[in-house]
Design a protein that fits this description.
Order of helices and strands of chain B: HHHHHHHHH
Largest sheet of chain B: none
CATH architecture of the largest domain in chain A: 3-Layer(aba) Sandwich
Helix content of chain B: over 70%
CATH class of the largest domain in chain A: Alpha Beta
Membrane topology (chain B): Multi-pass membrane protein
Largest sheet of chain A: 8 strands, mixed
Structural class of chain B: mainly alpha
Helix content of chain A: 25-40%
Strand content of chain B: under 5%
Strand content of chain A: 15-25%
Pfam families (chain B): DUF2053 (PF09767)
Subcellular location (chain B): Cell membrane; Endoplasmic reticulum membrane
Number of helices of chain B: 9
Number of helices of chain A: 16
Oligomer: heterodimer
Radius of gyration of chain B: 18 Å
Radius of gyration of chain A: 33 Å
CATH superfamily of the largest domain in chain A: Zn peptidases
Distance between the termini of chain B: 54 Å
Shape of chain B: globular
Family (chain B): Belongs to the TMEM147 family.
Strand order of the largest sheet of chain A: 15-14-16-13-11-12-10-17
InterPro entries (chain B): TMEM147
CATH topology of the largest domain in chain A: Aminopeptidase
């Protein structure tokens, strides 16, 4: 009895193993695609509850190119649009009129990718920049009820596209009955990012207190917002906005840490370095950071310099302020900067933009300071305030569009004017950070950080609390500052984000149903002919005829 | 749709075996047992072959054609012939005629070969979205293989089972059996030595299988004449 039980148990376990094997076999390898490319999804977000961006992620449709036959039904078709063939009015028409589409796949030139483009020059830079900016504005502010992806061109996808174009030119749009190429992205439904965090990093360089001086030292703050927002979150590296600001801030911190490490050259000002997050969302992180200060500290801030997009200018930088230019502090800052600028042979202009308290839009980082009555200014190459979600790390904002020497000059300008203010050399022609000296700006340092930033997407909701990038920034700042604090906050407000920012696209060459039906027909007739042939050769024609005539009687006989 | 394609390819790969069994007198004499035994012998032979291949053959990094290695492979391939010999002579069958015996053995042999070599790639590959002609060609190859197996079994039964065959035909029978038995090496040479593409190789296989089948048939009927 026991033996019997044992054997049945054994049998059951064998069955389960067999079942497992079958499941395994059924799952094995369905990924033998003609080509597989990395794709980056258009951002999906809700603003005050209304949906924006690409609302879907999964894709399983046939592909078509721009030369599709007119009047074709594209509701189950993915349009592949290379950037150089992009017709913005066509796309706008499709999106604004909500014409049905299966999906959109934009092909960006390979030079824009940091990995493959390297330092190659971009042809027709400005034209492409304009086009991409326009496309991005359109996509980010629309509600698109199908998946939209970006990919970089490569040989694989180019050959596929050429094939698709050939088919389209012959007037055969790809559908289920004609075969062609199928684009498959097997991803789950995008999920909401639960309570996205923003991380602010601050570093202190304390100044030298005179003996017996009980008063707190005044503080100068240097601030840059480090996160980005772009059409494709996985590509939003923002080399200029605001990678250049971060690099400049780190270099300034490095220079002053050299000065402050020696008691003789330690200034009588505290220096506060702030790398803030949440920049694209009305400087939400800056606001939280400032609110976390206690009143005394906030009042001790003499002024704050915010660095924003200083990586691709030729000869003119702007200082944006929200207090009138006649204000004594503003005047002092501006004069300090313009004196140094004159020596460095560049121009600095002052732009005044009043704050409208009732408007939730905060265009510049210094406006968050000004709202709390702290004197602040933003140094930027942009002459006017950017709109929401613009100038925060667009698709074109890559390494190719950033000029290292511009950043070096910017660093010199800020460091020199700060140093003159700290050491009381206003108006005097002394070069503290002169080239070739031990305090010179280090181009290699700037280049290496710029390279790192240019390959690190930094969209805040997708950066975790302990993201390697945040850790690296903190560590770098800790190398230069005496004391470094990290502040985690929830990104609050009206924004909700959805995940699955990048995926892998499989391109399959597929046969049509018609083909398979035809094949079945051919095979069936082949087998029938084979059957007849074999019966005739082995048993004779009569047998074949009789086979068709009296199958029931044969059955009776055998029974 | 992809399941459909898998179904089509499976019909092409395994259909002819079933049709052969049901259309010829094999089904009437209930020779399924013989076929199953032959398939089992094939399994054993394949195992022995695998062990031999693993023992004697070096793994070549390049996909080129190495004559020495190929010769070794061809020699190991002759284990197949030994297996067939065993299946034809040593297995005790129910009293079926030689005529049906070799067909049943060849059929079982080819079916086992198809299942072993083609079922797994078919299941994995043909269900995928990607369309290639490979699985259809593979099905055609299975057809050619069926014909070749039956031819080889026929020639084998002539050599080993038929005692009174015309003396003049004996060298021809042996030559044909040799050619059929070395077919795998020949196709391997065509594919890798001459760099033929898969469709061309399959076409060649289909053509030679038909030619060999015709020759074997002629030989078989020629041997049958004096005895009757």
């Amino acid at each position: 009895m026991a033996a019997l039980k044992k054997s049945t148990e054994l049998l059951e376990s064998v069955y389960s193993v067999v079942a497992l094997l079958f499941i395994l076999v059924a799952c094995v390898g369905l990924c033998d695609a003609a080509a597989a490319v990395d794709v980056y999804r258009l951002i999906q977000y809700d603003m005050s509850g209304s949906p924006f961006g690409s609302r879907f992620a999964a894709l399983n449709h046939h592909a078509a190119s721009l030369s599709f036959p007119p009047g074709a039904d594209l509701s189950r078709t993915v349009l592949i649009i290379p950037l150089r063939e992009l017709n913005i009015t066509f796309v706008r028409e499709y999106i604004t009129q909500k014409k049905p589409l299966g999906g959109l796949l934009f092909l960006l030139p390979e030079v824009l990718s940091f990995k493959h483009g390297g330092n190659k020059q971009v042809h027709e830079k400005e034209k492409m920049k304009k086009l991409l900016a326009e496309l991005e504005r359109l996509l980010v502010h629309s509600n698109i009820p199908y998946p939209v992806y970006f990919a970089f061109e490569n040989d694989d996808i180019d050959t596929v596209l050429a094939d698709i174009k050939k088919n389209d030119a012959m007037g055969q749009p790809a559908t289920a009955t004609t075969g062609g190429f199928k684009l498959v992205i097997p991803t789950a439904e995008p999920k909401k990012v639960v309570s996205p965090t923003i991380t602010n990093i601050q570093g202190w360089l304390s100044g030298l207190k005179a003996d017996g001086d009980a008063n707190q030292l005044p503080t100068i703050a240097i601030v840059a917002s480090y996160d980005t927002f772009g059409a494709a979150p996985a590509l939003s590296v923002g080399s200029d906005s605001n990678g250049s600001g971060i690099v400049a801030l780190l270099e300034i911190a490095r220079l002053f840490s050299l000065l402050y490490s020696n008691p003789k050259t330690r200034g009588r000002y505290n220096l506060l370095f702030g790398l803030t997050s949440g920049g694209p969302y009305n400087y939400n992180g800056t606001q939280k950071w400032l609110r976390s200060f206690d009143q005394r500290l906030r009042e001790s801030i003499d002024y704050a310099i915010c660095l924003n997009s200083i990586g691709s200018w030729d000869n003119e930088l702007w200082i944006h302020v929200s207090k009138p230019p006649e204000n004594a502090y503003i005047k002092q800052i501006f004069e300090g900067f313009s004196n140094v600028a004159e020596e460095l042979d560049l121009k600095v202009g002052l732009k005044h933009k009043k704050i409208n308290i009732s408007n939730p839009r905060v265009a510049w980082e210094h406006e968050q300071f000004s709202r709390l009555r702290v004197t602040a200014a933003t140094l930027s190459e942009l002459p006017v305030a950017p709109e929401l979600f613009e100038g925060t790390g667009s698709l074109f904002d890559g390494r190719q569009y950033v000029n290292e020497t511009a950043i070096i000059r910017g660093v010199k300008l800020v460091a020199e004017s700060l140093a003159r203010h700290i050491y009381g050399h206003q108006g005097k022609n002394v070069q503290i950070f002169a080239d070739e000296s031990s305090l010179a700006v280090n181009p290699a340092y700037i280049r290496s950080w710029l390279d790192l930033l240019s390959q690190t997407p930094r969209v805040a909701p997708f950066l975790s609390k302990n993201d390697p990038f945040v850790v690296a920034l903190k560590k770098e700042l800790a190398d230069h500052a005496d004391e470094v604090n990290v502040q985690h906050e929830n990104l609050e407000g009206i924004f909700t984000f959805y995940d699955s920012t990048n995926a892998r696209l499989n391109i399959h060459q597929v046969a049509s149903v018609t083909f398979d039906l035809l094949l079945l027909l051919v095979l069936g007739s082949y087998l029938i002919v084979l059957f007849c042939f074999l019966v005739i050769t082995t048993r004779g024609v009569d047998e074949l005829i009789s086979l068709f005539r009296r199958p029931p009687s044969r059955k009776v006989k055998t029974a | 749709m992809t399941m459909f394609h898998f179904f089509n390819c499976a019909i092409l790969t395994f259909g002819p075996h079933a049709v052969y069994y049901s259309a010829t007198p094999l089904s009437e004499y209930d020779t399924l047992g013989t076929s199953v035994k032959a398939a089992l012998v094939y399994l054993g032979t394949a195992l022995v072959k695998l062990v031999c291949l693993a023992t004697f053959l070096q793994v070549s990094e390049n996909d080129g054609f190495d004559p020495y290695q190929e010769l070794l492979k061809a020699l190991i391939g002759f284990i197949d012939v030994a297996g067939l010999y065993f299946a034809l002579t040593q297995l005790t069958h129910r009293n079926i005629s030689q005529n049906h015996k070799f067909q049943a053995v060849g059929l079982g042999w080819a079916f086992a070969d198809s299942v072993l070599h083609r079922l797994a790639p078919l299941w994995v590959g043909a269900r995928g979205l990607e369309f290639t002609w490979d699985y259809i060609l593979q099905g055609l190859e299975a057809n050619a293989n069926l014909v070749l197996s039956i031819s080889l079994a026929a020639l084998g039964s002539l050599i080993w089972l038929r005692k009174n065959k015309p003396k003049t035909l004996i060298p021809i029978i042996y030559a044909c059996a040799g050619i059929v038995a070395t077919m795998p090496s020949i196709t391997s040479y065509l594919r890798r030595g001459l760099g033929w593409h898969f469709p061309k190789v399959v076409g060649f296989e289909l053509f030679t299988s038909l030619v060999m089948a015709f020759i074997s048939w002629q030989l078989f009927s020629a041997c049958q004449r004096p005895s009757t």
